[in-house]
């Protein structure tokens, strides 16, 4: 009856089910999986609300690439970071997930392949399946720092693009200059997800690809506003004008980006540093606490260069799922196991650095007391 693209399990996983049960029973869960900044206690400037009082939001004047004022604001965002894009190099989307779907439509036919990193964001297989394309993973390895294992690349005649996250989610690793060069040597378009780029813990290497590259970002992380549903694709390199013409046709089919948020975009980006600054202060403080607390413990903290997450390697006295269920059942601490992000071995916990310090610190203490 239904498309084979939707042959996914719909039942909640055991960890989610246990969390639902404990909350229903009145337990106070220390949630170290929090990824929603609007629930993490940050102060949003009044200008963000006032940006939606613009009367232009009441007029519908559809533009497939997005309103020119919004695209100019995105170009200015990049210019402030030393990167040059023209407004016509930019196409607005409703989310980075939609940006991926547009790019998969642009670059791949049904049955073609997209290369994605492992470990990484767990949504790629779903996004690809909905576009009838296949995912082929390449490995990230850790030897004191994260790097791409190029021996794991499986480029075939049906490979159409390479996805990179800079920094990666959840490893927090930035691409190095030599990795950019190796990636470009394959001669494939690069889809570069930069949603955590404004949250470095160390100075990131410059991103200077020369080939056809599509950079993705949006308000969800830059401004801490996932509910506003606005992101973008910024294209560069040989052939990017022709690519944008075709992306415009795709976007014109959906016209999914709401007018009010496009009108508000310049003001939202102007106010974004005030929110991003709070997030950077929070994540850095939580990371420093985690480093200090875990220094003499059985949990080994992996190096992280940016983003909102930290990775702790814990003893293999239990499997990852068993550890996560134990911590929730016995310690009221919710943390994600590494296999949620396709880690190849065990045992890892992925900890969000976004929660308020009191919650984060108590959650970490309970984890370390357990391991």
CATH class of the largest domain: Alpha Beta
Largest sheet: 8 strands, mixed
Overall residue-averaged pLDDT value? 96
SSE order: HEHHEHEHEEEHEEHEHHEEHEEEH
Strand residue percentage: 15-25%
**Order of neighbouring strands in the sheet with most strands:** 2-9-8-7-6-3-4-5
Instruction: State the secondary-structure class.
Output: alpha/beta
- Under the CATH scheme, which architecture of the largest domain would be assigned? 3-Layer(aba) Sandwich
Helix content: 25-40%
Q: How many domains make up the coordinates?
A: 2
State the separation between the terminal residues, measured CA to CA.
47 Å
> Roughly how many Å is the radius of gyration?
21 Å
Low-confidence spans: pLDDT under 50, at least 5 residues?
A: none
Structural shape = globular
Here the CATH topology of the largest domain equals Aspartate Aminotransferase, domain 2
**How many helical stretches?**
11
CATH superfamily of the largest domain: Type I PLP-dependent aspartate aminotransferase-like (Major domain)
């Amino acid at each position: 009856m239904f498309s084979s693209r939707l042959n996914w399990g719909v039942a909640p996983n055991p960890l989610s089910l246990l969390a639902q049960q404990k909350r229903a029973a009145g337990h106070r869960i220390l949630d170290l999986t929090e990824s929603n900044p609007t629930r993490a206690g940050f102060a949003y400037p009044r200008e963000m609300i006032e940006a939606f009082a613009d009367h232009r939001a009441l007029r519908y004047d559809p533009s497939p690439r997005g309103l020119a004022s919004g695209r100019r604001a995105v170009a200015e965002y990049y210019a402030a970071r030393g990167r040059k894009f023209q407004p016509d190099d930019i196409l607005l989307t409703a989310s980075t997930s939609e940006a991926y779907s547009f790019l998969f439509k642009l670059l791949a036919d049904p049955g073609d392949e997209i290369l994605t990193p492992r470990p990484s964001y767990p949504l790629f297989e779903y996004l690809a399946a909905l576009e009838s394309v296949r995912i082929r993973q390449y490995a990230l390895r850790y030897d004191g720092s994260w790097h791409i294992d190029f021996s794991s690349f499986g480029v075939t005649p049906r490979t159409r693009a390479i996805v990179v996250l800079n920094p990666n989610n959840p490893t927090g690793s930035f691409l190095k200059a030599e990795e950019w060069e190796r990636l470009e040597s394959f001669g494939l378009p690069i889809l570069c997800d930069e949603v955590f780029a404004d949250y470095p813990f160390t100075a990131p290497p410059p991103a200077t690809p020369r080939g056809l590259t599509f950079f993705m970002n949006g308000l969800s992380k830059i401004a801490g506003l996932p509910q506003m549903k606005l992101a973008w694709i910024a294209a560069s390199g040989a052939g990017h004008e022709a690519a944008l013409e075709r992306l415009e046709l795709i976007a014109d089919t959906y016209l999914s980006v709401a007018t009010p948020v496009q009108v508000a975009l310049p003001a939202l980006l102007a106010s974004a540093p005030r929110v991003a600054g709070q997030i950077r202060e929070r994540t850095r403080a939580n990371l420093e606490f985690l480093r200090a607390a875990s220094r003499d413990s059985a949990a080994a903290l992996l190096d992280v260069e940016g983003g909102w997450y930290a990775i702790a390697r814990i003893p293999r006295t239990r499997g990852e799922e068993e550890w996560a269920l134990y911590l929730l059942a016995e310690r009221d601490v919710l943390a994600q196991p590494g296999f949620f992000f396709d880690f190849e071995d065990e045992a890892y916990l992925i900890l969000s650095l976004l929660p308020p310090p009191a919650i984060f610190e108590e959650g970490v203490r309970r984890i370390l007391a357990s391991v």
